[in-house]
Write a structure and sequence with these properties.
Elements (H helix, E strand, L loop, with lengths): L1 H29 L2 E4 L5 E17 L5 E19 L10 E10 L5 E4 L9 E6 L6 E4 L2 E8 L5 E8 L9 E6 L1
């Protein structure tokens, strides 16, 4: 009798778990994100953080770093994580780009010296002595376009001279 009860409980639990996965997949498909220019040797993600502010802080060594806090703006976060080789210690490598725009911003184009308005910040995070950290972006283009189908395209083209970078062009379209 106990074995039947255990089997029945396990079967019910499996059906519940399957149903939950289907619902979360359906929710994800409603908000589609298309990322182009992601390097093939990794994965890219893009987040739009509403009602936030991007604060660029400086630690005791003079290094800059981002802090996302509550606010009245929209923070854009693009991240590339290179695939790791489990045989190599400290093989983690990622690049991240942050920008802050107005929460109701539908169209925007900032170039070079104007990028400070969006607090455009590039980060290279790795075990790369002297070649990692966060750098304000001063050369490039940030463009936000609201399309006729109400999708939004975010484009980043940028260069930093202080540290090497894999990402130089990013294009993301969200529906």
């Amino acid at each position: 009798m106990n074995l039947r009860l255990i089997l029945l409980s396990s079967l019910i639990l499996c059906f519940i778990a399957c149903k939950t996965n289907q619902e979360s997949t359906e929710k994800k498909s409603l908000n589609k994100t298309l990322i182009t220019n992601c390097p093939e040797d990794g994965a890219c993600t893009f987040d739009v953080l509403d009602n936030k502010s991007l604060v660029i802080k400086t630690d005791s060594t003079g290094a800059k770093y981002p802090q996302v806090s509550k606010g009245k703006h929209r923070v854009l976060k693009f991240e590339y994580k290179r695939n790791q080789d489990p045989r190599i210690a400290d093989d983690e490598y990622s690049e991240v780009v942050y920008a802050e725009i107005e929460s109701d911003q539908e169209n925007l184009e900032l170039k070079d010296e104007e990028l400070f308005k969006a607090k455009l910040l590039f980060g290279r995070l790795c075990f790369c002595r002297g070649q990692s950290g966060y750098i304000p972006v001063e050369k490039g283009l940030l463009k936000v376009t609201t399309n006729k189908d109400e999708s939004v395209t975010y484009r980043f083209n940028f260069e930093v001279a202080e540290i090497p970078q894999v990402l130089t062009k990013i294009s993301v379209t969200q529906k």
